[in-house]
């Protein structure tokens, strides 16, 4: 439906008031198409606020959006800053394990809002958490508050981490 709506809306070019339409419409639009109405960073801020579940995880458009977002935001290498993570919004959920490891604990709060993870993402999250080099500290120092902060990541924790958490 959104793809069809986009065709109708853009029949005569990209409308100047594109920002007034539902943000999910942007998931089917290329940033270069959007360039006439705003900056690519504004495009990805809006995409990051859209409901990413509209595109299934295996849809190639999701990966394309992520690649274009990383290019637009001029993210060098695999380190994502907290500011970049905020702009990426739900696209953070599609970052590979190398991004999660390189960014350390900066992505954990954002990742805790993701619905599911690929095995390589889960492994990277466990590596980051068990390192203890996050604002949460090592698992042996975690409290009930820490666990509530990490609630979306609890299914990723393995016995190695769970055994270290104080009762």
From TrEMBL:
GO terms for cellular component: cell surface; membrane. It comes from the Eukaryota. Its main location: membrane. The keyword Lipid metabolism does not apply. It is found in: Membrane. GO terms for biological process: cell-matrix adhesion. The keyword Glycoprotein applies. Signal peptide: none annotated. Keywords: Cell adhesion, Glycoprotein, Membrane, Signal. Pfam families: Mesothelin (PF06060). Belongs to the mesothelin family. This is MSLN protein. It comes from Thryothorus ludovicianus (Carolina wren).
């Amino acid at each position: 439906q959104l793809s069809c709506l986009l065709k109708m809306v853009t029949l005569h070019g990209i409308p100047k008031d594109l920002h007034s339409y539902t943000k999910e419409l942007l998931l089917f639009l290329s940033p270069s198409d959007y360039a006439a109405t705003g900056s690519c960073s504004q495009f990805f801020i809006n995409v990051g606020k859209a409901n990413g579940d509209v595109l299934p995880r295996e849809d190639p458009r999701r990966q394309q959006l992520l690649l274009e977002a990383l290019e637009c935001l001029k993210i060098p290498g695999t380190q994502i800053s907290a500011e970049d993570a905020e702009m990426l919004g739900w696209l953070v959920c599609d970052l590979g394990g190398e991004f999660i490891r390189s960014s350390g604990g900066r992505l954990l709060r954002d990742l805790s809002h993701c619905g599911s993870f690929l095995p390589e993402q889960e492994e990277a999250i466990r590596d980051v958490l068990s390192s203890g080099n996050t604002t949460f500290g090592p698992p042996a120092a975690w409290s009930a508050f820490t666990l509530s902060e990490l609630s979306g990541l609890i299914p990723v924790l393995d016995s190695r981490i769970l055994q270290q958490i104080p009762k």
